[in-house]
Amino acid sequence: MAFFTHHICRGLSSSAVRHVVIQNVTIIGGGQMGAGIAQVAASTGHAVTLVDTNEDILKKAVKGIEGNLKRVVKKKFADKPEAGEEFLQKAMQNVSISTDAGSVVQGTDLVVEAIVENLKVKQDLFGGLDKLAPAHTIFASNTSSLSITDIASSTNRLDRFGGLHFFNPVPVMRLVEVIATSSTSQETFDSLLNFSKMLGKTSVSCKDTPGFIVNRLLLPYILDAVRMYERGDGSKEDIDIAMKLGCGYPMGPFELSDYVGLDTMKFIMDGWSAANPDNPMFAQSEVLNKLVAEGKFGKKTGEGFYKYK
Ligand SMILES: NC(=O)c1ccc[n+]([C@@H]2O[C@H](COP(=O)([O-])OP(=O)(O)OC[C@H]3O[C@@H](n4cnc5c(N)ncnc54)[C@H](O)[C@@H]3O)[C@@H](O)[C@H]2O)c1
User: Fold this and answer.
1) Which of UniProt's keywords are assigned here (predicted)?
2) What is the overall mean pLDDT for the chain?
């Protein structure tokens, strides 16, 4: 169900802003990110349908959400166990699952896509859903490195298409980058900003430029750290210690790369270096390529720059 609200923006010019109040959310992709977004949306009172092509992944995602929420409840409602149980039940009742995106989008205010980072696959998904979703439904992609404009080009709702870039783990990380293309309407953008606020997140406004804000700054920094290590300017341990103790970063660049996943880092590096072959900031890294070729993707495989076994 969509409602339009009007509220007054305080600022230099007070003007009425319209936004769609998002109540029913369809999240496509039940992996790390999709499950995290579903958890946060369900625990802030949204009716969420989590969609994946794989039923087992969906069951695992729901189990994961329940386990995470139980831990939250134990901490947050330590002296009010009944209120905690009620919160948990309500949140879990807000989550349903489906393997048929086409049928569930018919009653949704917002589709958040968190599937594989592949332009063609994302375009095919949105192109199909565009024909089935109601006119008011907003589409958003959680892509880390692709252009929202390119993804949206497979639809006829360019004004109702934007980016919602969450960070991993979604329940913990407080930021959402909200991305407007040159065709995103003000109403859509305001709706996405408002939705992020309803999730309890802090949002920043981004243009549809490669990497938005965070990854555009983070990737060249990490690649530069890897190049320092390749040249022997510092050991990876020393570079990590230096950035943690010298800059107050919670993780050094090698620890962070292992956490993000070296396969993901390489995917972004490959895309950007192909698109900007003359920009040394995005140049290929031999060490990164070698580790990925060896299947050393970081924490998730037990080894990346460091060993985790
Ligand atoms: N992992 C991160 O740190 C991170 C952070 C921000 C954004 N992202 C972006 O979020 C997206 C998802 O990343 P992830 O790490 O959750 O990936 P993941 O591999 O954990 O999950 C992707 C899920 O999508 C499902 N899927 C694939 N194609 C589908 C389709 N056509 N329809 C329905 N489901 C489909 C897969 O079965 C899988 O469960 C990517 O675009 C990625 O760039 C990732």
Assistant:
1) Acetylation, Differentiation, Fatty acid metabolism, Hydroxylation, Lipid metabolism, Mitochondrion, NAD, Oxidoreductase, Spermatogenesis, Transit peptide
2) 93
